[in-house]
Amino acid sequence: MKLLTVMLRVPYPANDGGSAVMLATLNALRGAGHDVVVAALNTDKHHSPPEELQRLSPIYTVDIDTSIRWTAALSNVLFSRLPYNVSRFLSEDFSKTLKNLVKAEAYDAILFEGTYTALYAPAVRAQTRAPLFLRAHNVENLIWRRMATAEKNVFKKWFFRHLSGRIKRFEAENLPFFDGVIAITENDEREFRRMGYGGETTVVPATANLERFSFQKPDAGSRKVGFLGSLDWAPNVEGLVWFVEKVWPWVRDRVRGVEFHVAGRNPSPGLAKRLSAPGVVFHGQVDDPVEYLRSFGVTVAPLWSGGGMRVKIVEQMALGKAVVATSVGAEGIDAQNGREIFIADAPVEFAERVLALLADGALVERMGLAAANFAASRFDERGLAGRFESFFARRVGELRRIS
Question: How many Å apart are CA 177 and CA 197, to the nearest integer?
């Protein structure tokens, strides 16, 4: 089949969960023999030379500045129905690029990567009868609803609730443009149904290329705990602040010389100071995330908002890390608590899980090995590619017969 994929950023290098999912999907479709063309916004935040991706697929990009500006956010609240988060990705040039692509080529199907790409679904639908599919990385309104629940600042709580409501309306209004929705988790699929989507859906977990994430026996005597995640993503920052303020003092007071290492891309200028505490080592962006992770036996994923599924946790499990996560952090992974992962939500319980691992190198090794086997069997892109592609191809075939 001849396919067009619409993306909100160039997914190369795949140094965050969203990019890893998009690149894995692209590889799955190409690996199944489909001819794939990519149309992507190239944001200032994730700006990437598209030439790198040209080796895999033809790609058409449009540069865009998606910087957050509070004056623009206020204006959006007062004068627009479009959620501010979505409006930042609005580009007339990109809309023209998509229209020209679908006019010039007869595509068998068009895949939209991520819910915010639905911004362009009406314009594309007006130009083609090809079926449109949404690969939903998250239920976006759920992220902001959870952030509103956790937020203490009155103004921020109101803004997050307002934003969640707008995003939910945007999702509900645009879902009908799609002939099929591929969700990351069963919970996400249920949320789309609750919003009234009546088309075909399926669940295919986020896939990852796990070739680099080979199991390595951890250092049984290590007193280091690690975190890796995008430091410009609000749920990660929220979770880190909770961990450092509520959990870390329990751990630090009971283990002499213990260290908590924090790494990730695009940290805000004041984040290191905000996370400053005895024993906390702030790295910011690291050159090689895999090598960084190899220095830990224990990692944490203290998330309270977010949605979909955390690919970074899957990658850490594949490396053989013993991961301690909140229920939201572990959502969609379906690992067995106490076997492949530890799940805890109360600060003291979370600290106790970390302490148990720091005190028992054999437990770290057992859990790490179980986690690595689980990740390889459930999430490697080579195993999930067939599930994604079969739904895609079957649905296209059904729609052809109907038309």
Answer: 10
Pull the structure tokens for residue 291.
């090598």
Task: Provide the sign of the torsion angle of the four alpha carbons 207, 212, 217, 222, taken in this order.
Answer: negative
Distance CA 17, CA 12 (A): 11
- What residues does 112 pair with on adjacent strands? 6, 134
Cα angle value 6/12/298 (rounded, 5°): 115
Predicted structure pTM score: 0.81
Among 138, 140, 193, 145, which residue's Cα sits nearest to residue 170? 140
User: Model confidence over 12-70: pLDDT tens digits?
Assistant: 777 677 787 888 888 878 887 889 999 999 988 777 777 767 777 889 999 999 888 88
Give the number of other CB atoms < 10 A from CB of residue 282. 18
CA-based radius of gyration for the chain: 21
What are the chain's domains?
Answer: 2-206+381-402 (3.40.50.2000), 224-379 (3.40.50.2000)
